[in-house]
Amino acid sequence: MSQTIEQLAHLANEVLDKAYGYGISQPGQNFGWLSSVESARAAKEAVENGITKIDDIAAAVHSGWNRTAIADFRGELELDTPTTTERKAKRNLLAQMPYEHLPEEEKEKDRVVARAILIALKGGQNEV
User: Whole-structure pTM over 0.85, yes or no?
Assistant: First the structure.
């Protein structure tokens, strides 16, 4: 069964909450939800294009998150709760880094999402 972007975004929220206690973002104009949607969209596209290596899917997750972080930094998003200037700056720094250059703890956040989406889409067929 093919998962929708929205279903995968919910899944991303759930696994990040379980791993890091982030809380569950609800659909709407909030950074958490919008970044989950873009991360899920990028990961789904990667998997549908035959990518099965976790770090390659995680790089796609990071790329999707980047789109949201950069748009927020530039003031292009109308969020229900605006992001603080400090948080925008921190996210923007991470968004400017290619996945390969991220600190290991940031890479692992993307891997958590990548693993869950790969399992949801392919039933767990993956490569390290």
Answer: yes
